[in-house]
Amino acid sequence: MADVLTGGSRERAHHPLTLVPKADAKQSAKDFKSDQEVRWCPGCGDYAVLAAVQGFMPEMGLAKENIVFVSGIGCSSRFPYYMNTFGMHSIHGRAPAIATGLAAARRDLSVWVVTGDGDALSIGGNHLIHALRRNVNLKILLFNNRIYGLTKGQYSPTSEAGKLTKSSPMGSLDAPFNPVSLAIGAEASFVARTIDSDRKHLTEVLRAAADHPGTALVEIYQNCNIFNDGAFEALKDKQQAQEAVIRLEHGQPIRFGVPGEDGLGGKGVVRDPATGDLEVVDVAEHGTDGILVHDAHSASPTQAFALSRLADADTLHQTPVGVFRDVRRPVYETEMAEQLERAVEQNGKGELATLLAGNDTWTVL
Known about the structure:
The protein is of the alpha/beta class.
């Protein structure tokens, strides 16, 4: 019997979100490794993400034949070859569109999208935002290395302004996208950020995304050691990370840095009463009053969006990671199945010829 999860904001006994069969036997990471040689540049952050995903997949307890990875074009898009599941290396920027059709037609599948900052946010920008607003039951892993790696080092939609690359020898003039801000603005119901080298945190975020009914977008900071090496060093170096990384936990005060023995050290995030913007303060000077408590489940996206704007695009100082937003709203496939059933009840099974020759057609003589 299939495992049933209920989607949307209300119970639907007849239209569960997904009917993905459980695996017959216990699985391990090895079961999700294909027989293909993994071919990325030595030291690429993609290896770490692949290992984390393969290690996490058994936790889902799903039959691997009912898991699908769809990718677009780019270094990260080789991902489906290395997963011992079904998969498709699809069209540049169109992975969310193809995955939407698959998820809508086959609700017995767990559908994952693997994309990069160029693939998702340049040619694929429209496909991404529409998948997010529709709340299709997809898990989208957006590898962000802030560079075009496959085509050998041009600036990407997430490269910082002034970036010197082969395509911007005098510095990029473009303002970069913030993928988390973009996703929240597109009404995404689940948005998170993590880092390729932090296996524990990455797995926790994957777990939360997999449990979410609807579209879950996970931005993964991923190092390209050939064309943009060290882009996220401030977040990976242990000493620097203490002052640079804000770890978001639902229900917990938003604090970071070294707290000190009295608990009054480090920094905290507060809201400026004059402007309404978020700002970082020294807890020793400010105290703990007014320190914001993270609410990932808030119906309003205001605080999640404000948190996404804290990071400095150039230095990545004060960068929040974790789940920014995790709210429940109706899932696209569930709503579609309900509409189709109502249509059949009201109009009968119907015939394609009758539909094509309906009242809104005419004959040209």
